[in-house]
Write a structure and sequence with these properties.
The protein has two domains: 167 residues, no CATH class; 147 residues, no CATH class. It is 49% helix and 19% strand. The chain is α+β, with helices and mostly antiparallel strands and 354 residues long. The radius of gyration is 29 Å and the shape is elongated. The strands form two sheets. Strands 3-4-10-6-8-7 form a six-stranded mixed barrel. Strands 2-11 form a two-stranded antiparallel sheet.
Length: 354
């Protein structure tokens, strides 16, 4: 019997058992969608760090020598360092910045973890608002949309109360914590109790000499150091992706194996008609690959609707969409191998049994 005949029978069997296959496709699609979302969660850490760092418009950061260079945990330096950095050769513009994780209190809702970012009015990074206006004075704030506060709403951080004058988007850190942009003085009050301290000095141009105790770090170095802080979480997410793929393989393999058990007589007939083991494997591979690929296609749609269940940014990389069909085909072939033994062990004599 030719390969075309075996493959035709395989497709007919898919249609005949469509309810079973649809259930398997639905289950595998949910697992594949979670795999895509996990890839998006892992990438989200990098995306939010890069977006925040790049939004300041600086060429480099001047930080303390001993600083970890992580954007949300920089070692404080004295505020007067900004003036000395501004006078350093190679620096065109210098702007102090304070970046400190804090807790914000909003009436009627539980406290919210935020990243307070203090900038001098008109300094680097102050053009953050996509709605409303940027900060123009003490007591005003621009907040990320994930904080859920509209223009005119009030919240407090430590002893300071702020009014939202602007809203921005895609400005978070530490796995979805919204950024809150305020004046440098307000940030000092909330983070350092008014002490003359800053987190870093943002510069345009690259300093060729700096005051003692300070060093320059590129945007890329800040981004990489900040991402290392999230490395444990990213590793756990990536490991979970492997488990998701294993679950999808089990779902498809279970269906194909059960189907192979039910088709024992069909396999016997095919072998009696001269079908080879390779041809039988090809039929099983086609069947399982169709299930896996349709599940992968459905998963790409489901993933778009499921991103909203996470507070953390989800940025599914295009590579994940390209890899998923290959993973689906691999799962389909693996499922076929599991069922192959049942197919090749069918006795051709069974085809003529009463």
């Amino acid at each position: 019997m030719g390969d075309a005949g075996v493959f035709g029978i395989t497709v007919s069997d898919l249609l005949f058992r469509k309810r079973q296959f649809l259930i398997a496709i639905g289950g595998a699609a949910l697992v594949f969608a979670m795999t895509l979302l996990l890839a998006g969660l892992a990438a989200g850490f990098s995306v939010e760090i890069n977006a925040t760092v790049q939004s300041f418009g600086a060429d480099a950061w001047v930080v303390a020598n001993a600083s970890s260079a992580r954007v949300a945990s920089l070692t404080p330096i004295v505020g007067s360092a900004a003036g000395r950095v501004a006078a350093s050769p190679g620096v065109r513009h210098a702007s102090p910045v304070i970046i400190v994780p804090q807790t914000a209190s909003v009436a009627g809702v539980p406290p919210v973890s935020v990243n307070v970012i203090g900038l001098p009015i008109g300094g680097l990074g102050t053009n953050q608002a996509t709605q409303g206006t940027d900060v123009r004075g003490s007591g005003e704030a621009v907040v990320d949309a994930t904080m859920g506060l509209g223009i005119g709403k009030a919240f407090s951080v430590g002893p300071r109360t702020f009014t939202v004058v602007g809203v921005t988007s895609n400005r978070t850190l530490l796995g979805g914590q919204p950024n809150v942009y305020v004046t440098l003085g307000d940030a000092r009050t909330t983070a350092f109790r008014g002490a003359d301290l800053i987190s870093a000095v943002l510069v345009t141009g690259i300093p060729t000499a700096l005051p003692p105790g300070l060093t320059v770090r590129s945007n890329q170095a800040i981004e990489e150091s900040s991402l290392q802080q999230m490395s444990a979480g990213i590793s756990s997410i990536n490991n979970s992706k492997v488990f998701m793929a294993a679950i999808a393989a089990i779902i498809v393999a279970s269906l194909v194996y059960v189907t192979a058990l039910e088709r024992s007589r069909d396999f016997a007939v095919l072998k009696a008609l001269g079908a080879s083991s390779a041809t039988l494997f090809g039929g099983l591979a086609l069947q399982s690959s169709i299930v896996a690929l349709v599940a992968a296609l459905l998963a790409t749609v489901l993933a778009q609707f499921m991103t909203g269940v996470f507070q953390q940014p989800v940025s599914i990389p295009s590579s994940a969409y390209l890899i998923l069909p290959l993973v689906a085909i691999g799962i389909g072939l693996l499922a076929s191998l599991i069922a192959l033994r049942r197919a090749v062990s069918a006795d051709p004599a069974q085809a003529f049994a009463g």
